[in-house]
């Protein structure tokens, strides 16, 4: 299934960091975006905060936004006609359920209701609707206008197909879960990796900056072109993953036993904070974000080129 | 400290996959490489197996090899004058210890003896030498001619400084461990991530291909430009890592509790093998490696460009 975002009405609920990223992205790809937020102050500062993701997308794709963004404080107006409602409310079940009650009253029933939730699951959110089939979870990875992944779960395959087509039309890479899980896929993987990263620092094996450099110039770089399972397929020689599991499965299981289970004690927290400060080398968060985004844009442009 | 590889004698012990990668890399950057292997057949096929890494490096940097490679079956000749000995013997302590006894007899004492060992540590290897100060571990990440990371450990800071300068001159990113650890840094992180990747498949949350796609287009991509610790610094809002640890540390610890501890049972192995086969979509290992390397070259070229 393919979709065309041209003039398609898409409503973004919540104009925080994630909502701003979605709004910039969908407008860039031609949608008629309505951006709603219950806080007048948040809505007022939204145009300024949209400037950077818009500029990033223009740099990435070589063209400016093909759609537009309307800023709306009236939720009834925001929900009148969207094909997709991307919900970015605070990560609170009661807050999201209250919003869903309004959506069910005000929005067209065929609209896809997609929650950007990171820490909650479809099972947490579905009880807020009389018709839970409307709901999917669609979790982006920060910064959402640049990182292509969107993790999807929903019980209605036809609705998921329509949603996937919309995200693909916005240049996203949708990935489906078969059952809901806390942290979806990506944050589970990130959490598992970070636990060991904390352990390495806590044990004094290497400092914060060394761990991050090893990741960026080693497995992180390789995982950006080759997944973890496939890496072991290629690491198994001619026998592939089957050969790997036969010959090196037992040593991998022993290595799992050797991995750490650190606590975020006050001492470890202080070590992490000091290590990050060293790694920052005086750069503030805005500078680090700008460096991250420039590097992501360079990599995404390299990926987009057809390989010769 | 900086180093010039031009005409520098470097000896590579072992002409398997890793040794071939090192030989191509150092010769590309100007060294006079001696490649030794005890198996005549391995040495005989080495020139053919060097063709691909050499072509990759030419494509990456836009120039051909600036040094050369000599194929030597006599270990005394191979060890006569190297500044660096990169050892890639099988991952067996007795095999490496026996080789180290020859090195100590035949090589100049000031030569750096660097082991590429992946699964052993400096503590395992040092008893093979009467002067263990000679030895460092210098673990590359596959494919070693393209992935920049080299993980270093050794007890002699001056020797480590010299080694770092040589690896940097070959375009590598050296990272130092403070104490030896099984799996160094990168394979500990990779092992921790893969454990959860296996758990996600084992629990039916998502299939092999979905997990790999989520990694490549989400955290993997981001980790190639931003380390795991720094990612939480940027995820903490204005408060940085300290704010993150205060506000979200407890939920991160809860998530750690929720991560899996799978076994590589026959059933899981079959699921992984079948999932990888689906993800391969008929591509054989050589094709997958060629795709991986082409993608790595494109990313490394994008990284090398100065950011505007």
Automatic annotation (TrEMBL), chains A, B:
UniProt feature coiled coil, ranges: none
Any one Gene Ontology molecular-function term assigned to this protein's record: oxidoreductase activity, acting on the CH-OH group of donors, NAD or NADP as acceptor
Source organism of this protein record:
Roseovarius nubinhibens (strain ATCC BAA-591 / DSM 15170 / ISM)
**Official protein name in the record:** Putative hydroxlacyl-CoA dehydrogenase
Q: Which SUPFAM superfamilies match?
A: 6-phosphogluconate dehydrogenase C-terminal domain-like, NAD(P)-binding Rossmann-fold domains
Picking any one GO biological process from the record gives: fatty acid metabolic process
Q: Which Pfam families match?
A: 3HCDH, 3HCDH_N
Q: Which UniProt keywords apply?
A: Oxidoreductase
> Which InterPro entries would you find in this protein's record?
3-OHacyl-CoA_DH_NAD-bd, 3HC_DH_C, 6-PGluconate_DH-like_C_sf, 6PGD_dom2, NAD(P)-bd_dom_sf
Is Oxidoreductase among this UniProt entry's keywords?
Answer: yes
Q: Which residues form the 3-hydroxyacyl-CoA dehydrogenase NAD binding domain?
A: 10-177
Q: Describe the location of the 3-hydroxyacyl-CoA dehydrogenase C-terminal domain by residue ranges.
A: 183-250
């Amino acid at each position: 299934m393919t979709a065309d975002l041209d003039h398609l009405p898409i409503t973004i609920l919540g104009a925080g960091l994630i909502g701003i990223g979605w709004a910039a992205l969908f407008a860039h790809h031609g949608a008629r975006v309505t951006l709603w937020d219950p806080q007048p102050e948040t809505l007022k500062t939204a145009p300024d905060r949209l400037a950077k993701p818009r500029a990033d997308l223009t740099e990435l794709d070589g063209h400016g936004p093909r759609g537009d963004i309307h800023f709306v404080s009236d939720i009834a107006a925001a929900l009148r006609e969207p094909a997709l409602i991307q919900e970015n409310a605070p990560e609170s079940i009661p807050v999201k359920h209250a919003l869903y009650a309004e959506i069910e009253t005000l929005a067209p029933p065929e609209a896809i209701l997609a929650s950007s939730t990171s820490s909650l699951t479809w099972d947490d959110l579905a009880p807020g609707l009389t018709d839970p089939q409307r709901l999917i979870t669609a979790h982006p990875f920060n910064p959402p206008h640049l990182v292509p992944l969107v993790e999807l779960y929903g019980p209605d395959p036809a609705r998921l197909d329509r949603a996937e087509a919309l995200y693909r039309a916005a240049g996203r890479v949708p990935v489906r879960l078969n059952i809901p899980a806390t942290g979806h896929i990506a944050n589970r993987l990130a959490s598992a990796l970070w636990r060991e990263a904390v352990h390495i620092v806590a044990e004094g094996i290497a400092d914060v900056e060394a761990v991050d450099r090893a990741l960026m110039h080693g497995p992180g770089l390789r995982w950006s072109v080759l997944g973890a399972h496939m890496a072991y397929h290629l690491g198994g020689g001619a026998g592939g993953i089957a050969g790997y599991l036969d010959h090196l499965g037992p040593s991998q299981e022993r290595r799992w036993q050797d991995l750490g289970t650190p606590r975020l004690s006050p001492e470890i927290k202080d070590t992490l904070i000091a290590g990050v400060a060293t790694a920052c080398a005086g750069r503030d968060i805005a500078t680090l974000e700008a460096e991250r985004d420039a590097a992501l844009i360079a990599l995404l442009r390299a990926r987009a080129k057809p390989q010769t």
